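Hi Y.,

Following your request, here is the sequence exactly as I used it, all 642 residues.
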Amino acid sequence: MFQMFGSGGASCPRCERKHGGDARYCGGCGLILGAPRNVPVLRENRWVAGPDELAVFFGVRELSGVFVKTLRVPATARAYILQGMHATEVPQGEYEIEGFFTRLNHLLRDQHAEILVTRTGALPVEFRFDDVATSEQLAVSARLTVSLRIENVPAFARHFMTMPGTIGSDELRELLAAPVRQLAGEFVGARSIREMAGNRDLREQLDERLQSGLKLLLAEYGLAVVKVDTVELRHDKYDAHRARVGSLWLAADERHVQIEHAKHLDDLYDAEEWQRLRRAEQAARVRQRERELRQDDAIARAELSLQGADRAHAVRARQIELYARILDAGSRKQALERGAGDVLAELEHELAKKGARRLDEAQEWKHLRALAQVRMRSELEVAQQDARQAQAIARQRFSQQLLQQQIRHKIEQAALIEDAARRQAELRRLRASEEDAARRAGEIDEQEHLARHQSLLLANAARRREAERLQEWEDEQARQRIESTRTGQQQDKLARTIELDARQARAMQDVQLDAEERRHALELRRLEVFGAMDDTAKLALAAAPNAAVLGDFMKTRVHASMDAGQLAALSGLAGEGKLTSREALQLVRDEQARRELEVDRDRRHQVALLATQAAANRRCAHGHPARDDDHFCAACGAAIPR
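Below is the corresponding structure, written out as tokens. Let me know if you'd prefer a different format.
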């Protein structure tokens, strides 16, 4: 059951009755001792928070004790009554005691209760920081307004309502100054002044970043961030005598800010100064990397201070942003146009140190993007670990600061105790509690230092994993190149084999065509010679089946040209000196054998010429010349196909 603690021995803030001893509640009106002296709430019974207050809370011994007058809950207020484990909202309006308990009949009038009075709207809390650094180490002044309201009453009561009091803009500003500054510093530190000057959505982006970061922190404590307004974000340049040269307004709410001394960015810094700022940004990144690499296992020797941790987060966020720009770019030119030239130069320098061979433009850009991706992955791992540690430390610091505020409030209440001895004893007890709280704050600092050192060790481990991933990627690329070269050689060998086969096939085809042409030429020549022969030669050279027919035809033609006397004389000589058919057939066969021998001799001559030509062009698979009787190349040892 939730129950707040009162301040015993103090006078009642409502009826001014004096008390001694260990009394927690007023013996006259039942109000818890130590309640805030809020006149509207306690004297007029009008439950409304002050103009700079988010909440007013107090307790009563019996709930019926709040009705010393008519209870009023105005439209600008929200009121809650906590009894046991439940929080009941009191609707806005005016109440008498009977009507109140009739409407809220689940409340117990004779039981103690805690009262929480808050606002209907959010309470704006203003923050101002004058030295938020950009990525070039330029100071930026930021003025912000964070609007807060109570979202979860039980959670708020557990953390804030341990004793009666108020929570106003001053207390909230003290509690939230560190986390708001950290979030704003990380946002601004991850960007250059030129990028912010050209970003029209800068104000909305900063508001969203702060609101999301504070939401994670305050949800546990029952608070909600309704809105974040960036009133102004300004960079002032001063000369050597601290006289203002001009102001660059990065973001401004003109309803609340009067813009003065406004100048453009190029009017504030010339080309030489921009080069100096660029070198300063590069030097900051190098120093951060060197500090991380120099850490050892001794926490006391860690070189990064807690104050520099926020700057380290900003540098890492800047690196991640630049690596992301390289990955989003389609070429080196686009990466330069997006402002990633410095990181791109670092990556190119690293490749040059590794002795990477010069590739074509596309392959080199692919290598750079792969290196940027590996680097970005390592930075993201470290950034995520840092974010988790920072959130845990921020919650501890918030709770510790809240405890210290409550102790200070108790000391103020103890100073009002009229009994001197009791007042001194209570103050000694509270001072001891204050020292314990300070000691606990030191322990939180030590835990943060330890967490920072562990983060550095994780960063070094991430660097080693980064080198391993990069080596794996390079090995894979080398393997692919070897495989590609091997495949190319095999394809070249296959192409040469196909070309040689095609050349040999063409040569054989040429030989066959040449032989066919020669055969046709010989046939034509034979026909021409045969046509020029006389009848006797034709008959002698005719084939056996045609010889008899040709002989009969020629005999008939000769007989047709003879007269009767010649025919009679011929018939008398028919049987003398005549060749037999066997002799004529033998003559024909001898002539055919002679002609075939001549054709065969010509064919063998052509084959010998082709063999001589092939022997002259004989080479190995690598193009080296070889002799006809070589089986292996004398130059490279490769086998020579026959």
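Residues 296-307 have pLDDT under 50 and may be disordered.

Thanks again,
Q.
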